[in-house]
Amino acid sequence: MLPSSCDTFVALPPSTEGQRIIFGKNSDRPCDEVQEVVYFPATDYGAGQKVECTYIEIDQVGHTFAVVLSKPAWLWGAEMGANEHQVCIGNEAVWGRERADEDEALLGMDLVRLGLERADTASKAVDVITELLEKYGQGGPCMEDECGFTYHNSFLISDRKEAWLLETAGKHWAAERVEGGYRNISNQYGITTKIDKEHPEMREYARIQGWWDGKTEFNFAAVYSFLTTARIEASGSRYCEGKKLLEQSNGHITAETMMDILRDKDSGINMEGMFMTTGSMVSVIPTDPALPGVHYFTATPDPDRSVFKPFIFVKDAQPIKETSSPSYGPDDPVKKKPRFQSKPDRKHELFVKHELVAAIMESYKDREQKIRDAMRQLEKKTMEKMEEFLLQGIAEPIYLTNQFSASVQEEICVYNKH
């Protein structure tokens, strides 16, 4: 099994329809891994409290924002998610000249969740993630086994007005601000000479290592990659294909556009095989702060055979049970040392139903299209309803406290009929 990375996208005006930011990500993970969608409300903490991340414990902050996360069920962090201030973050695995550390520290997925819990803008999320990176480091196995699969991380971060691309190599990093148009990232460094924030010692470290002569224009991707940026643009890469798909709809990018891109199998963006797309997310964020953001998640593998379901941050939003995996507490094999001695069943209610329907679709081609049509009809109906909120705002938030769970139940009803 050759581990691969994910694909993350953001489109901002004027590349989108209306004054909206569209964020999307496919999470490509081991095919037997369960991804859950969970909600955590805003919380206040006392002085001196700690938070236990996947492998290490760190200092907690006094207040965390409400977050909705799509996450591998075995770990603390998240592949992607959003917070109540409409900050969205997704991360990618990247490899370069700096060795990816196997020592247990913060995972890139932990940094995604920490950024969402602690930052109310995209720029602040860059600061939160880089400060934690410098203090605690990144490292540790990124799969639920003893294979030693480790990587550095890049992050695409957006809010209501802009996006930031943050790329890391060990504790060193560079960040680029994106104020308009579109951007996508895969598993290659993509920041070149436009650097808007950086680790203060990042350039000098590269010079000492002999990667940069200290005289020519500094190009982060060229200096820190194994290869030059030409590799990123190579024909056939998922990055290049994703960029083409965004370009095709430039000026008219919508949530539906982003879902189609995430479902695209010819490009490899919707990945199949031992590493596959195990969860997908699309967020629609109006630039008008009076309007809500709508965050769609599948919570199931293969977006082409999944339904994107909406979550909206409202007061008194309820926990999401149908896509929450069983908790094993201190008895979890991830928590016990040596770790990963066994794998418990982490399938949530929706995953079990979806797994059965996916098998039917695979085995009975005559039923496959009927099921897919029913799934798309449900998705379209729900998105039309969400469009009203995106245009007019929310008059009665109480009716949206269980919106995601209600959508899951409708999806399960479709599966039960077929």
TrEMBL record:
It comes from the Eukaryota. GO terms for biological process: proteolysis. InterPro entries: Peptidase_C69 (IPR005322). Residues 322-344 are annotated as: Disordered. GO terms for molecular function: cysteine-type exopeptidase activity; dipeptidase activity. Belongs to the peptidase C69 family. Secernin subfamily. PANTHER family: SECERNIN, SECERNIN-3. This is Secernin 3. It comes from Salarias fasciatus. The lineage of its organism: Eukaryota, Metazoa, Chordata, Craniata, Vertebrata.
